[in-house]
Structure prediction request, 1091 residues.
Amino acid sequence: MCYLKRIVCFGLLIGCLFSPSVLAQPANNHLTIGGPFEFTTLNPSQNGYVFTRMQVVETLVDVSPEGELLAGLATHWDVSDDQLSWRFHLRDGVVFHDGRVMDAASVEQSLSHALQQHGPLAQAPVERLAVDGDALVIELSQPYQLLPAVLAHYSTVVISPDSFDDQGRITRLLGSGPFKIAVFAPPHKLGVERFEDYWGQVAAIASAEYLTGHRGESRVLQARSGQADIIYTVDPASTGMLNRVSHVQVQSDLIPRAILIKLDSGHAFLKEVEARQALSLALDRSGIARAVLRAPGSEANQLIPAPLADWHLADLPPIERDLQQAAALLDDLGWEMGRDGVRVRDNQRFSLNLITYADRPELTVVATAIQAQLAELGVEVRVSVTNSSAIPAGHQDGSLEMALIARNYGFIADPLGVMLSDFGSPQGGDWGAMQWNNTDVAELLKRLEGEMDADTYHATAQRIAALLADELPLIPVTFYTQLTAVNQRVENFRFDPFERSYYLNEMELSQ
Amino acid sequence: MIQRILINRLLQAVMVAWGVGSLSFVLMRSLPGDMAYRVAAGRYGQDNVSAEAAEWVRQELALDLPAWQAYLHWLLDMLRLDLGVSLISGAPVIDEIKHQLGHSIELAVMAILLAALMAFPLGILSGLRARGWLDRSLLLLSSLLRAQPVFVIGLMLILAFAVYWPLFPVAGFGQGNDWVLPAFSLALALAAVSSRVVRDSTLAVIHSPYYQFARVKGLSEWQTFRQHGLRNLSVPVVAFMGIQLVGLIEGIVMIESLFSWPGIGHGLAHAIFSRDVPMIQGTALMMGLLFVALNTLVDLACYKIDPRGRPE
Amino acid sequence: MKPFLAWIPGLSRSQWLGAAILMALILFALLEGWLHQGDSTRQNLSNYLAAPSAQEWFGTDHFGRSMLARMGDALRLSLMLSLFCVATAALLGTGLGVCAAWMGGITERLLNFLANTLLALPGLVLVLLLAAIAPGSFLVLYLAISLVLWIEYYRVVRAQTQVVIRSPQLEASRQLGFGRWYLFRRHIWPAIRPSVLTLAAFGAGNAILALASIGFVYVGLQPPVAELGLMVVELLPYYNDAPWALAQPILAIFLLILGFNLLAGKAK
Prediction:
């Protein structure tokens, strides 16, 4: 009898524990977003992308999905004839989340802060900032036509002077976007609320939250169970599972990012163009695109993907796998097939280290595929998975042989910024060429830095792209398609290929 | 007696603090790769990590300091109970740990409660009816559960109760019912072992002479059990729970990673990835101290229940 | 071989079951290595996630790699690691435990201090810290796991040896002038043998668990190595498309640990 009572009590207790936990139903006008990025601070130089995407903060210059620069907090800008003085005319009626009105002085304070942090603005040839009426003047030490694109970068957001403490550190993030921060719980949760006094389109949804889910599997399950409305960066492997449920749509968008093999063009095995071409020909890009990334058609034949039209060669044919030709190329270079299946030349085995990093899960997967494909050519690849910092570190100390990387050419709205840091100097760049003896590209890039004419810009960019495709200082593997799982209750979903904004203020939630 | 327990444990805590701190210091210094680059990657993200970023970090954090100097600095700060600031976020380590520790303790407490709620009734029932159908089926269940890593238990629960029957959230926190699956995964692993210990203690107690005597002198089964059984069987069980705490803390690392639970285990794994030495020292230290503290509680509980025995 | 054989007749029914499970797994691992000789890293992207068939008994994974070959590799890896770790930990722990009990004094204190410090940190955290030094290194994992496992031996052996050393039998032998090695073999080893063997079985299970757990949080061995924990993570996204593939490493971990737990018998 007594045991029975205990069992009943136990059952009741368990029941109590469960009772508040009915179906995980999102609140009515509340949007839940999931993504892989963790954030640790309010500092825009470090985690600014989270705050621009959640539309808490804005920049002077905006970017269209096609990569054109648009008016942001600055309505228009002009440059002096010597190209050394830029004047940004600020928008009227912009109010920060604390009620302060944006003026040129607050913009100057924000940008001065950005100048003292790591970021593209700090690397620009900025001489000084000045306030002139309702305009901000930036004076340069040399012509730099990238400036407006740099001012679209997340590290150059404009925030209220009240955001800083006495020592100039950011203690609150009071931006001007359509949403203001309600909950800031790093590294996992950022809650935002609608800001009624926004200068543009005031949001329809009342609140939204961003949840970090660093495991791809968990994120997909969140989308599937309806716990999250939108999941960014869906693992390609899981699309099959999501396609089978009717309330979630998987959207696939090409973004200006590519998976590439960075290699040491000065390495004894890789210094001949033919050797690099052989490696390129041995890759089964369509196999990787189809089976590994589950994104057929994302094979890359050049570094820069189509959305960045100036830099993309539209007519370049795809690179088909041709093991015979690849083998012939290596044969001609004196590489003979050894007994263990690895080619040998001058008693040296064709064996290379390839490093990649776990931050983007698809890279390790692609690396194993490349390892297997190059093995068929007689090239041994030893894969080691490290941290993304190993790429610049390995470039600087010269220990890097090959690396599988994901490069974001839209990091600054104008790819020239990334191209300059990757190919702009004879030493190459941390994420670009390495010991590649080619001065033409660097010279052409230098010329583009001050180029204001769109046609000349296009023609030069195309020449650079052609040179890179021929010489293969980096071997293109695939372009990136970003998969996003969107619940059907979300209306007006729009994807920004530059990943600057989630366009939350345009979305509506149906019931 | 209590004082002795406390002093012993306090000494152990100091040892742990020094040992763990020094160990993680040495380990992190001997990790491959330049620390400045690692920290820069953690701070600025993979798209923005470059030699300039690393130089920036090196200047700001004075990473050029020789190892022994850095170690001395750390030791002095430790004596002042200052754990330093995180290299990644720049926030004081102690603040971040407070934040994480709260979540971890919440999870651990829930897991222990759930485990106790399962283990005690089931263990006592199967002990009272040893070799009955309940006892046998629980033995089987417990053997099966014990042979699973805790992350597999978590996975099964996710697939069952978050995907197939979407009753609970898959991951994340802050929704009210998100603790259920992670806490249950941990609790199941704990209860699988402790229910057997409860059962064995129960069996031992009801076969003991004093228990038999109480029955003979005419007390009902329930009265006997309440007055003579419960207290006697709890000592070995509580002591055993103490041993199991290791499993709990290890389980927390796995489960937090699986459920994206922003606790200390998850924090440790992340700090290791981004080479955030102060955070690693802080989290490892906290885990060690937490462990010592819980053990102290177990010692005290045993002492409280049965003042005869000298723990250890 | 003698002490091991002497231990066998005492096996209970469930211990026999455990032994049988383990023998089956070892047999599979060895036979797969000898007869199948599959390449666990060879990919075939046109045949990914194939269901088990006559050609591929266990199906293929997301790269079209043979699951049979990968399971063979992974089982050999886990068994090998647990063997190495347990052997090292048993030797070290037993040796130091006997030493500490025998010598007493400062040796014992120092060893106790070391053991207590290590014991205050959850084992997995220690393995995690060490594994981070050299991600993907088998050697480091082996050292880390052994470092955690030996403490249990040390504590148990020390406690039991202390009892034996105070016994009149050992004192008598000592009076007769027998050497230390003889004393160990004649008196101490028989007393600690059952515990050492039980701990060995438990330790092997724990080593396998630790390896899989570390793989699961991405700090352990690196792709393309076939390792059970890593395989679980890699195959997890395909649980819907290829449940049989995900089930294999999970089942293997389960059987390995179950086998060792059953073999160990009842915990002391």
